[in-house]
Request: fold
Amino acid sequence: MNRSEAKVSEGEGRGVGGGEEGRGVGARVELYEKIWMWGAAGLVVVFIGAVVYTAAAGAVHPPSHVETIDPQTARTDPRFASPGVTERPDGTVEVVLLAQMYAFLPTEIRVPAGRPVTFRMTSPDVIHGFQVVGTNANAMVMPGYVTEFTVTFPQPGEHLIVCNEYCGLGHHVMHGKLVVEGEAP
Ligand code: CUA
Reply:
């Protein structure tokens, strides 16, 4: 039975491809095949639509921040000479941070809950990861570049910060702590 089915589809295949016979356009396509074709085409449209929609309505863009820095002098660069948390005049918070073998500087970060926190970080040595466990704050820290992103932590609490890019023998001990302060809304 399987064999005869295979033969049938073989025959159809020739029919579709047989343009020289002038029957290509009217070739019969099985219903289930049509369903898959339209389903797949529909998915492609949905995916592209989702990308366009989130880019336009949600301002979701791929990271394109290309602020550079010399890793050799990153520790003394004015932008990173004094890592830590500062409050900006507009009420937002900025965290300047160095990720290096094998620690985050500062190790402990205290930020307020419910306010936008902008992280600015770089690495003076190799690629590190910066992941605040349990949140969507997660970025790569690359030597030569300044990684910047803004995130709001709605709930107070303590989070572990881990390096999630293998950076050497001490990778597994590279961690920090983020304390989100404030009252639960
Ligand atoms: Cu730093 Cu792994």
